[in-house]
Amino acid sequence: MANSSAAGSARRSSRADQLAGDAAAMWSVAMTTPTQFAALAQRSIAEAGSGRTRAETNLPANTSAPQI
């Protein structure tokens, strides 16, 4: 009985360590991703300075964007 209790305790400790490591890795990715996007000047919604979406810029006839 004592052996199974010790083994269960060891498994729980090991899993807690794994969860802590996973959480630290996810936090690290979450903190650095916006910085990487900013450094690479990536825009996900609008082209830089245009005020139009990527679809409107690339193929305006296929959208409701006003024709210029």
TrEMBL record:
<protein>
    <submittedName>
        <fullName>Uncharacterized protein</fullName>
    </submittedName>
</protein>
<feature type="region of interest" description="Disordered">
    <location>
        <begin position="48"/>
        <end position="68"/>
    </location>
</feature>
<feature type="region of interest" description="Disordered">
    <location>
        <begin position="1"/>
        <end position="21"/>
    </location>
</feature>
<feature type="compositionally biased region" description="Low complexity">
    <location>
        <begin position="1"/>
        <end position="11"/>
    </location>
</feature>
<feature type="compositionally biased region" description="Polar residues">
    <location>
        <begin position="59"/>
        <end position="68"/>
    </location>
</feature>
